[in-house]
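help with these tokens:
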Amino acid sequence: MNVQYWCHMGFKPPLTRETLKDIQDRNPGSADVRALLWEVKRLRALALYVDQLQRMLGTLPGPQGTVLESIREQLKDEPCVLEFPRLPPEA
């Protein structure tokens, strides 16, 4: 089974920081929503760490390279990666 297909089957598009903030604002007293948003924050941080790692790894040969390319493909449209400020390449 294609790794990319398996990871995307059944998922809705990712939520942006702004959308998550709107959900929080609509549910100010909900401990359950607050707990879920903390979990989302933790997973978004993990996605940023994975993005940083895959950028450091460059190109890998063989099956490792195939998995890394799949990770790159999935991360490229993640809102937390797109929203995160980056230093210019020359910095």
User: Anything to note?
Assistant: The two ends are 40 Å apart (CA to CA). The helical segments are 3-8, 17-26, 31-57, 62-75, 79-83. The CA atoms of residues 59 and 69 lie 9 Å apart.
